[in-house]
Design a protein that fits this description.
The protein is α/β, with parallel strands linked by helices. The protein is built from 16 helices and 13 strands.
Length: about 525
């Protein structure tokens, strides 16, 4: 009877550890649905029964600690981003370690309750097990089956050709989602180290026609994590665009909602700057036949990339680096006061470019990147952030960053007004950002809402006929692919892709080869929903 009693005590503590943090967390966050799925509950109960029966206390305690860390980090991640992390989010974090660490530090004060909630139940499970395992039931060699169950997601991942089943499920427990994400991440990295890749589909090569480029300079102003949901120019209730509103009636300026090609910076920029339609066309990205920097260089443009991004070196794999004359990233801009986006224009001015020669310039911003409070001067803060609850803090700090971003854009417009040569200025961000819509934050899920971005065009000194042409050809709700095609056209290239399906386009996830999932969407349907007056 004593063994039965102690075994039940341990089992209750273990099950409470894997289920109760989800249940309690859900009481305080109505968007959190984990812990109530019957299948997930049964699977975790079976796993804890095997732990109870396994006569390997050191191994059991190690597994319990690992599961606790998975659970705690998933709960913390959900607190900050409104969703669980996947294997591809882990890949992204390993590539952008600096950004991940400062983002984690920024949100730590909001994530600590979730951490302590998980640790409290971990402590209960650990001390109950440690106190009674010697007098509970065990089964010899059952630890082998227990270990096999734990590693089953990893073993399945090694031979899996698709990642969908390993993506987080909002209804499953944080422990289960953590186990699957870590397992798939580990298997993927091992396959890469072993030189193994899953076979990607093959596509027909793009057809490229070279024409006379426009007699003008071309600027691609690439934003960061900017959604039109938070822009007054697009109807947002807060006055977040006072400087851009002055351009609203300027005949050289037009703006429209748009859709990004991906929900991750690295993926989005790779697809945009290589004019890629497909979500998994590895060969085309490798060849860089339609890389914008390469196209510009072949037409005699001087090419420049200036960014305030702190991990820009990781982008070089997709940027045709050999075709860029000037590469300036954050580490090259440290002599300026502050670490804000005004340095883009300051650095550009310091380069003393000859604008009578054709210039192809990309200015890559950062100011609406999380943590938002780090990316705008505090002297320009309008909406209070100190002492605010989490959702208010996130929204206000983001809107402050939008205010700053739009001022930097307007300053760049003013500069090119006086450059002495007609200039095309294309603006679009890499992806959007949610700031509480539907209880979600961030941008790394394959979700059209996270891809809704602004597109703005300013033509300094351009003929009105050319501005009208661009406006008509892009229409309302263009996507990155269509915008990139127009940039290429200005550079003197017509690109025909035989792989296109009429009206069908793709939104990619956090892996440039589609391994993080992607979705196909009908652009006309989205146009009709968003701006029927521009629907084709």
């Amino acid at each position: 009877m004593q063994k039965i009693k102690h075994s039940l005590l341990i089992l209750a503590a273990l099950w409470a550890f894997v289920i109760m943090p989800d249940v309690i967390y859900g009481l305080f966050n109505h968007n959190y649905l984990s812990g109530y799925d019957f299948k997930s509950i049964v699977i975790t109960l079976v796993l804890m029964v095997f732990m109870l029966l396994s006569p390997t206390p050191k191994f059991n305690k190690a597994v319990l600690l690992i599961l606790a860390l998975m659970q705690a980090t998933q709960l913390m991640y959900f607190t900050y981003f409104g969703g669980f992390y996947s294997a591809f989010d882990m890949v992204l974090m390993t590539h952008e370690t600096h950004d991940a660490l400062i983002g984690f530090a920024d949100g730590l004060k909001f994530m600590l309750p979730a951490f302590f909630l998980s640790m409290a139940f971990y402590g209960l499970a650990y001390f109950t097990y440690n106190r009674f395992y010697k007098t509970s039931f065990t089964v010899p060699y059952i630890w082998v089956l227990f270990a096999l169950l734990l590693t089953l997601p990893f073993l399945q991942s090694l031979r899996s050709e698709a990642s969908q089943k390993y993506q987080p499920n909002i209804a499953h427990s944080a422990v289960k989602n953590g186990l699957y994400s870590v397992s798939f991440f580990t298997a993927r990295q091992l396959k890469i180290l072993a030189g193994l890749r899953k076979e990607m589909p093959s596509y027909e090569p793009y057809q490229i026609t070279k024409n006379q480029p426009a007699d003008a300079n071309v600027v691609v102003l690439m934003g960061e994590s900017l959604s039109y949901y938070n822009m007054a120019l697009y109807g947002y209730e807060r006055d977040t665009n006072p400087d851009l509103m002055k351009y609203k009636d300027d005949p050289n300026f037009f703006f429209t909602p748009a859709i990004s090609s991906a929900v991750s910076t690295r993926v989005s920029l790779s697809l945009f700057f290589n004019t890629v339609y497909e979500p998994n066309n590895t060969a085309h990205i490798s060849k860089m036949d339609t890389a914008l920097f390469r196209l510009a260089k072949r037409q005699g443009y001087e090419t420049h990339y200036i960014t305030t991004q702190k991990n820009a070196g990781g982008l070089t794999y997709s940027f045709s680096l050999g075709d860029i004359d000037s590469w300036k990233e954050n580490k090259h801009l440290l002599d300026y006061e502050g670490e804000y986006d005004d340095r883009l224009l300051l650095e550009l001015k310091s380069m003393n470019l000859d604008y009578d020669k054709p210039q192809f310039i990309t200015l890559h911003m950062r100011s609406t990147h999380g943590p938002y409070v780090d990316n705008y001067p505090k002297s320009q803060e309008v909406y209070p952030v100190e002492g605010q609850p989490y959702e208010t803090y996130m929204l206000n700090s983001y809107d402050n960053s939008v205010l700053y971003t739009q001022k930097v854009i307007a300053d760049i417009y003013e500069f090119f007004k006086d450059s002495g040569k007609p200039t095309y200025i294309f603006f679009t961000p890499d992806h959007g950002e949610l700031t509480g819509q539907g209880g979600r934050f961030g941008h790394n899920a394959v979700d059209i809402d996270m891809a809704r971005v602004p597109f703005m065009f300013f033509g300094g000194g351009l003929d009105q006929a050319e501005i009208s042409r661009l406006k008509n050809e892009l229409g309302c709700m263009p996507n990155h692919y269509l915008i990139s095609l127009q940039v290429a056209k200005v550079l003197g290239y017509d690109i025909l892709n035989p792989n296109e399906e009429m009206g069908k386009y793709y939104l990619n996830g956090t892996d440039v080869f589609g391994e993080a999932g992607y979705m196909q969407y009908d652009l006309k349907e989205i146009q009709e929903q968003t701006c029927p007056e521009f629907a084709q």
